[in-house]
Amino acid sequence: MKEKMQRVINFSGGKTSAYMTIVEYQPGDLVLFCDTGREHEKTYSFINDFEKNENIPIVKLSYDGGFRNLLNKTKSIPNNFKRFCTVELKIKTARRYLKSLKINKYENLIGFRYDEQLRIKRRKKMWKNVIDVFPLNNLKIDKQFINDYWSKKNYNLEIPSILGNCTLCFMKGKNAIISILSIYPELADEWIKDEENNKIIGKGYQYFNNVSMQQLKNIATNNLFKDYNLYEISSSLNCNCTS
Question: Residues 102-112: pLDDT tens digits?
């Protein structure tokens, strides 16, 4: 009889990966959430609600020392040309945990939907003994289906999708970040500290090469038009931020 391969479900804390976990979970699967420490507080509430309602255990992992410690170690700040944050905080953090369990060969379930073909095509194979699987693509599940599903549940992720993953991730783009900060200016504080700290220990890098997070916050707070609908905003770049 063929030996059953370990299955690892990547749970990002969003509605899509949560749905994938609900429909795919089998006893013995490992459900991993790699916490960057920069998620919106309501993401953490959603994860707690998920565990209570679905009775599916989630293994919560984080990089040693968190997001800021990674920046201190590298003496740098990530951007869309050097996305070491995703690699270290998510991919390698999950990999280290699995290796500690002596799991080197497994199926890696990723929640890319049927309407996210570009993300699937750009997904790079990193390890030969890891088989990436895209269940929602195979089931032809799209964003509308996901939203309809969660609208009927007794709990939900109560933030727009643009606030998913790291709150002010550079992959969302400057315009999206300005829109977010026009409503939630306090979210900029940690990111501003990153850049200020990096001027001392690093090479003065910023998340964007021509504007600082402080400047983006200033633009947002000085803008008289604050009627942005965050539910209608999407990231400017396709993100592969998953374990």
Answer: 999 999 999 99
Pairwise CA distance, residues 17 & 164, whole Å: 12
3 state DSSP class of 165: coil
Q: Are 159 and 42 in contact (CB under 8 A)?
A: yes
Do 146 and 16 form a contact (C-beta atoms < 8 A)? yes
Q: What angle do CA 239, 242, 243 make, to 5 degrees?
A: 155
Placement of tokens 């750009």 in the chain: 122
Written as six digits, the tokens of 95 are: 């990999």
Which of 23-32, 78-87, 120-129 shows the lowest mean pLDDT across its residues?
Answer: 120-129
Query: Could you tell me which residues are beta bridge partners of residue 82?
Result: 79
What is the tens place of the pLDDT at every residue in 178-218?
A: 999 999 999 999 999 999 998 877 666 899 988 999 999 99
What are the structural domains of the chain? 6-161 (3.40.50.620), 170-225 (no CATH)
* Rounded Cα gap, residues 8 and 72, in angstroms: 30
